[in-house]
User: Fold this.
Amino acid sequence: FLMEVDMEGAIRRMEERYVADLRSTLRTANVRHRGVRRKSEGGIDITLRTVSDQDKARETILRELPDLELTAVEKGAPDRVRARLSQRAKDELSEFALEQNITALRNRIDELGVAEPVVQRQGDRRIVVQLPGVQDTARAKRILGRTATLEMMLVDEEHNVDSA
Assistant:
């Protein structure tokens, strides 16, 4: 079997979590905005109340959410900023998603009782699964193909929970 990890879906879910993080971070820093929205093509648009808030917003986001990169949205929209996951954050997410999927697949293979299964990474998104001796391939596909959502939750180790 050849399986592929849905990296676009993982990135989309991560960006959706960052929408809430951005709202909270900007509110805490007293940066007023009119909206924080994830764009369907990827990225997050932040519409500020005033153009003068842009420098403070950029500084706050870069300091508090280092996995995001900021760019200008377009000419004629100086009150807006676009945030995107950095390549480093995408690479970490990809690595995490692959490892978690490999672990989940190995656990599912245990249900099949296969003596010497092979589960290995192939490239950036794919996982090869070999199940020698399995007769019921339909059952194997059903067990291996169960949909599961694996999510990466970031842990902030820099700040003390007691001081919050």
